[in-house]
Amino acid sequence: MSALEYARLQFGLTASLHFLFVAVTLGLVLLVAYLQTRYVVSGKPVYGRMARYWGLLYAINYAVGIATGLVMEFEIGLNWSGLSRLTGDVFGAPLALETLIAFVLESTLLGMWIFGWGRLGKKLHLALIWGVAATALLSAFWVMVSNAFLQHPVGYARDADGTVRLADFGALLSNSALWFALAHAVAAALTTCGILMAGISAWRIRKAAKPDDHDLFRRSLRLGIHIGLIGTFFTIGVGYAQFGPIDDNQPTKLADGDKAIAAQADMVARFGPGHYLPGDIVGTSLDSMIGIANLLFLVLFVVQLLTIRDTLIRRRWARPALWLLTAMIPLPFAAAILGWMVREEGRQPWAVYGLLKTADAVSPMSAGALRASTLLFTVLVAGLALVDWWLLARAAARPPGGEFGMEEEAQPELEEVAA
Amino acid sequence: MSNLWYAILGFCFVAYFVLGGLDQGVAMLLPALRGDGERRAALNAIGPMFLGNEVWAVGAAGVLVAAFPRLEGELFGAAYPAVIAIVLGLLALNAGVQLRSRGRWRSGFDALIAAAGLALALGWGLLFGVLLHGVPLDADGHVHGQPALSDPWVWLTAVANAMLVFVHGAAYLGWRLEDGPLRARMHRVLVRFAPIAAGVAVLAVGGWYVAAPDGVRNPVAGTVLALAAAGAAFAASFATGGRAFAATAVACALPVLAAASALFPAVLASTLDPGATVTVGDAAAGGDTLRLLALGAAPLLPVLVAVQAACWWLFRRRTSLYW
Question: Which among A56, A101, A166 has CB closest to B286?
Fold first, then answer.
């Protein structure tokens, strides 16, 4: 394999693993913030228990999510110096805004939230998780601004030596490759978390959760299904809405048949000889992703109906639906990877569409150096990801109540009985 | 404008070397602690601040990518194996510290955390060394090979940084732990190793005088700052509690300023062709980008600092629980 292939493999693997964690982080933080808000407003202990149970899973997931994010930040400088050299002026600006005003703040607030249970005032503590949620969304926004520039470069001017300079920041923010894609990613994150929450709750209910915990998982199951269904609906909607802009911005990405031949001929005329069509994997990934999304929507729609009067839990004949919800957990993750394959693999052979080829963006490193770094990063990142998922499963299997060093709260129902 | 952003970059790195340095120092001390209880106590002492400390590395890398796009690629290329060690260290430290108490493999995680702390302290020190040594920048603007990494003074600089960071961790634990035998032991570690760290730092400065790389333009400023770092480390062994920690914090911060001011206005000195040397102005992004960042990002830095200060204030009391 060449240095270029190793560099692409390395970034692709890190990014794919990162997305698996980000999809959970981005969606789950909103659900935890919502649950904690209900807890603070209503004072019902069950919402506090829910916020802590799902909050612990969120924090365990975040640990490897932030680590893979760190790796990606450094990989850009390590392996893609051509990208920062020629287009860093434009592409780097939103990335810096992301790290400085979102990522750094998000992590600081999260550290305070994790250690703040039972030590900080309830309202301040609630404000912290909303701060984490807001900065997480802001982070996703700025990353997508950077990514949209790679897909469809706008708002720049070229120097005499070919270096790209920022000319119009507003154009970066109104990029037609940005807003639908961002909405698609956020909705997909909500879908992922909805299904994760529903799947874990269904598993705990099937394993006969203790009567105390039953209410927690019954509510979580319902919330997960609602959010999953709404998320899938919007993911599919804004997914289809992207076809128009993609056709305009990247004529080679999804073209087939005569249109593909025409697009290839047009690119050769503009940029010289070369192969400008992405591989078959783009079409296959797109079809698989759409298939998964439709399947998820169908299943979630049916189980949504079964949530009426908790039929899903109460009726024996509905039990297989609980099993199905748990079995479905990997599907939204697979769809997320497939979606990113379409977006990123479909951009090839360009690093910045029409501006900079991937082959010209890679650092002048030897294949041996890149093979070594790819091997080391992959072993460590994949190893930590597996350990993290195992720990998540372990934490999900534990009885709720002892998270973040919190003692079980007094049950007001019991106090009332005593009074 | 480019000098302003160079100062902001320096600020991010100083914050990382002081705050991230204490994480690395505590990580390196883990093998010296006895049993799970002591290790939990030590990690717990950095607990609420840990994530906030670590992300300064991301902040610094973000400023590097955006404000100095032509610097990051070539610097990382010139120190490729060291940067790989840094990234692996960041990965292992962040995941390890947060996951160790979740599972059964605590001793495995402890080894991973300690190795990560050492890799980070040495890796960042190597990066200092590579900067001072100069890089093989050609007229084509790319670096070719990593000769600096076989230079003994580069490695001595890395060892000096690791020693300073180690002492910094001991000073932090000697300040923040609950009163008891562990705290007293950490203080003894500080008293014993701080003079050694100061000595290694002075040796490294002497080494750079022997090597006398062409890229060092302001040897006096660099020497004064580096010796001040050594002096602060030495002084830390005579102090206790917060004062000792403040002294080691200064000792960890000054090497950043020493390396930067020794080279200024250059950032990457070429060992092949003085004309290929990259200055702050050459490395910086265009004026529009820097102005945008100055409007969009710079005003939030004080907010960030305030939030982190609030974190230290809110968790000023010693905590006994580890989540």
Answer: A166
